[in-house]
Amino acid sequence: MAFSNLVEIGIIRKPKGLKGTMFVEINFDIKRLDVVLIKNDFTLVPYHVKEFNMQQARFFLQLYGIDNMNEAYSLQGAPIFADKSLIKEDTKILDVIIGYELIDVQYGSLGLLIEIEQHPYQNLLVLNYQSKNLFVPYHSDLIISIDHEKKIINTQLPDGYIEAVL
Q1: Which stretches of the chain score pLDDT less than 50?
Q2: 3-state secondary structure of 86
Q3: According to the model, what pLDDT value does residue 95 have?
Q4: HSE (CB half, 13 Å, CA atoms) of 33?
Q5: Which residues contact residue 39 at a Cβ distance below 8 angstroms, ignoring those fewer than 6 apart?
Q6: Rounded distance between C-alpha atoms, residue 106 and residue 48, angstroms
Q7: How do 152-155 and 101-104 pair as beta strands?
Q8: How many Cα atoms within 13 Å fall on the side-chain side of residue 11?
Q9: What's the predicted TM-score (pTM) here?
Q10: Which residue of 11, 20, 124, 141 has the fewest CB atoms within a 10 Å radius of its CB?
């Protein structure tokens, strides 16, 4: 699997149960999931998927080598990467959230997401903020939640972020 073919497909939200199963947020329609890479500090660590399923509109993931709740907690908040060929062809990468409103804890409404620039290690959300393009990294440290029903992305940008990038 080449690094250029990797795409961030979601994030690990929290453990479910005692056996290492995790609730995950997946942003794409996935064909199958056999191997994922999980970002641990500055490294992508490969894991073989033991089980990946959906129950009541929630995705659950169990990985070989993650066998208890403590190990699952150690991965909480980590981005999940996979080969982009696993995404169903009729789903364009991250296009699902274009048009969503970004609302930041500190800055309030930042506007609507107009584009997503995809890069090998970091996708950037592009907003039209005060007649200028504002680039917000699509990263688990900055994205608090995504509400697909209300079409809202809640963020927590670092203090001074907007002033620094505009």
Answers
A1: 56-57, 90, 93
A2: helix
A3: 66
A4: 27
A5: 45, 78, 79, 81
A6: 39
A7: parallel
A8: 14
A9: 0.55
A10: 141
Residue count of the chain: 166
Q: What is the pLDDT of residue 35?
A: 92
In CATH terms, the superfamily for domain 3-86 is RimM (2.40.30.60)
Tell me which residue has tokens 């961030």: 8
| Domain covering 95-165, topology | SH3 type barrels. (2.30.30)
Q: Which of 120, 124, 121, 100 lies closest to 112, judged by CA?
A: 100
- CA-wise closest residue to 93 among 140, 61, 125, 52: 125
Q: Where are the domains of the chain?
A: 3-86, 95-165
CB 106: neighbour CB atoms within 10 A?
Answer: 12
Give pLDDT, residue 2: 61
